Amino acid sequence: MGQLEGGFDIANPIIQIRGLRKLYGPHVALDGVDLDIGTGGVGILGPNGSGKSTLFKCILGLIRITEGGGEVLGKDIVTMGPDIRSKIGYMAEYDSLDPGLTAVDQVRYAGELLGMRPDQATQRAHEVLQYVGLQDQRYRKIETFSTGMRQATKLACAIVHDPQILFCDEPTNGLDASARQFMLDTLRRTISDGGGTVIMTSHVMEDIQGVCDRVVMLSGGKVVVEGRIDELARQITREIEISVWGGATKMEQWLLQHGHKVRRMGRIMRIEHQGDQTIRAILEGASETGAQVRVLREYEPDLEDIFLLIMRKLGKSAKSSSDLKGVPGK
Ligand SMILES: Nc1ncnc2c1ncn2[C@@H]1O[C@H](COP(=O)(O)OP(=O)(O)OP(=O)(O)O)[C@@H](O)[C@H]1O
Ligand SMILES: [Mg+2]
Fold it and tell me: How far apart are CA 290 and CA 269, in angstroms?
């Protein structure tokens, strides 16, 4: 696998962060973050404690920044927090809903807190609850809601004032498959229909890949990789993927003995692509070992592969993105 290179290639950033540091007492949570973010979908990845939620709170002006700063929609994040919050939506990591309220009252209340007139907030509450799929449950108390319905209510609260940028911290956390799909579809729709910007964190690569075209990876409070997902994927060395039935182990050993780099997942093997000779070697290996190669194709790397490469470069021993929850950020 090759080198990964990110960089500032955004023509019209709507968020610009420079030299951002955040300390909680002596503990460094963000350690000099420089970041440009344009419109569209942006995924923030990183192990537990790497600073994702802290970055959101700093950008939203919710916590005091220790050093550095930046602008959101041309407004200073250090001094213009309330102004920024009126133009952006924030779906926090933790549940801040009032279980005693109905969904429509909760969302209207969120709108009023953001400075909307009561009649405006009421009308929008009904609109956004329909948008997030809760039109039939809007008069029910939140205490009767499932996790998926609570997450959808949080999203409705975050978009009640029609923000230009939506920050979602772990929007799919705790959701079952269908609620998760609905949440991801709604976020995608927010980007494609409204021309909006969604900045989301998740521990699940597939969620980020389904919504975002760019990714920022944090580790130990620093940005370690930033860029378009397709461009990062292009920087990964190509592999040929084969599916082997009968004799997979012999085939793997033959390839390794002949100097090929092999990643094996059961019947599936991915072999580093070094030109036509790789395909010739696979066919020769199959005929010599008697292995049956049923499928042979060029493998398209995904965000999971990018993640594994980054973790390896950082000297961390993650085997898959599910290890994100177990890898300490420092
Ligand atoms: N209020 C706080 N007081 C002290 N330390 C904090 C506080 N909030 C966060 N931290 C620490 O700062 C670091 C970054 O935390 P943060 O919550 O931003 O990480 P994260 O990437 O969002 O993690 P997770 O994936 O678990 O949500 C962690 O080491 C965390 O323990
Ligand atoms: Mg967090």
Answer: 16
pLDDT above 80 for 237: no
Token digits of residue 38: 């344009």
- More confidently predicted of 194 and 27: 27
**pLDDT band at residue 3 using 50, 70 and 90 as cut-offs:** very low
The response to whether residue 173 sits with its C-beta less than 6 Å from ligand 1 reads no
> What pLDDT, on a 0 to 100 scale, did the predictor assign at position 154?
95
Dist. CA 232–CA 264, nearest whole Å: 23
CATH class label, 238-299: alpha beta
Q: Is the pLDDT of residue 321 over 70?
A: no
The first and second tokens of residue 125, run together, are 């509450």
Ligand 2 mean position, distance from CA 52 (Å): 5
CA of 242 to the centre of ligand 2 (A): 38
Beta carbon of 50 within 6 Å of any ligand 1 atom: yes
Measure 203 CA to ligand 2 centroid, in angstroms.
Answer: 10
Q: What is the pLDDT of residue 206?
A: 85
Helix (H, G, I), strand (E, B) or coil at 224: strand
To test the pocket of ligand 1, the residue of 20, 21, 27, 222 to mutate (highest count of ligand atoms within 8 Å of its CB) is 27
pLDDT of the residue at 192: 85
**From the CA of 287, how far away is ligand 2's center (Å)?**
51
- Measured in degrees and rounded to the nearest 5, phi and psi for residue 309 equal -65, -45
